[in-house]
Amino acid sequence: MATIIDGKMLSLKLKEEMKGRIAQMKEEGIVPKLVVVLVGNDSASQVYVRNKHKSCGEVGIESEVITMPEETTQQELLEVVERLNQDNSVDGILVQLPLPKQIDEKTVLRAIRPDKDVDGFHPVNVGLLSIGDECFAPATPSGIVVMLKEYGIEIAGKHCVIVGRSNIVGKPMAALMLKENATVTVCHSKTNNLAEITRQADILIVATGRRNTVTADMVKEGVVVIDVGMNRNELGKLCGDVDFENVKEKASFITPVPGGVGPMTITELLESTILAAKRHH
Ligand code: GUN
Q1: What confidence score (pLDDT) does residue 214 get?
Q2: Is the pTM higher than 0.70?
């Protein structure tokens, strides 16, 4: 039976420690500020943005949420981004995804100043991450690395299998695990014999957005399982991409949903905002 990785408790601990650092920055006249832009009515995004705003308040980061209607044009959004780019009081800018269909996500992400891009989605930051340089790395994969280290899980030399190749999780996860000296395999919807590959994983990270992507027969004894999924089952209950109940019997460590990866994502966003503020001063 696996040790359940408690992302919620870990994030509380890290936020507590962050409070002290932010108080110290304030004494030096630096007040980190994050602006989150939310366009449209996506209900999950509304919850995520509320949580980000609340967490900023808890640790002493100033935060502002700009909400724009579903029918916002790309030009209107670009104008807001440009205003935030030029506002010296703003350290971090985050445009919540997904965006309504009339807006091209790529164009908007490229408009954010790379030194305010706390999400790490601008091609400049993506490039820096891929060559292993200092940059803003996406929050979810960064949070996963922190979580593994906090639980004393060795990464170097291990076979890390990632299922999912999104720009938000899968691809940056691969770059971060390479930086930590893991041997990395990235699987996706077109992968042949997925189970054969996942069974080789020492560390298995699943980010497909599909329930039961990984079942107990697809993992080896002692595997470390990180579940990035956020789905609802037929009863409307939150669940991840992994069959938690059965996989936990074989794993050495496993993250629950909710209470695993999610809280760590926010913690890392706060870290990136602190870093942005330090760099700006
Ligand atoms: N939507 C889902 N995850 C994220 C994230 O990490 N950042 C942004 N901006 N939007 C998201």
Answers
A1: 98
A2: yes
